[in-house]
Amino acid sequence: MKLPLSWLKDYVDIDISAQELTKKLLNCGFEVEEIICKGEGIENVVVGKILSVKKHPNADKLLICEVFVGDKSIQVVTGAQNVKAGDTVPVALHGATLHGGIKIKEGKLRGELSQGMLCSGEELGITDADYEGASADGILIIKEEVAPGTDIKKVLGLDEYVLDVSVTANRPDCQSVYGIARRSEERR
Question: How far apart are CA 50 and CA 145, in angstroms?
């Protein structure tokens, strides 16, 4: 059974790491087969606010975006056509790591400096099931108001841990988040 920590925290006061919780659940009779963190490996990706978009002078299908990322504005060259000034988007900064281990660095594209990359849902390893619009073709547009510079993992829920708990057949009372929470609380 997949057990999101945030759901378990709705029923039990937990202030320990997922690894420590795994040990405590084992003491209660639950084996945790895997600890899943959706955003594992994603580093240095923040929320950015697009200030302006203009055509690339040396390429028909590229755009140059000025993006505010919390403490500064950077220039990003993109081939995505679904962005406009005012959009809030995920931005992989210089030195960032994306889903699948892809590294991002500053460089020039057709003679214009690109100081990062605007990200799609696929590049962050998410789908519409995780965040509405993540499967769209092009850059992921963040729908809610979020301060530029905020870590994208917090915004998209990619900092959530999910425990894959093995519940034995003789424990039907523990086939739910509430059941495991109740059993854990009894063992405290």
Answer: 13
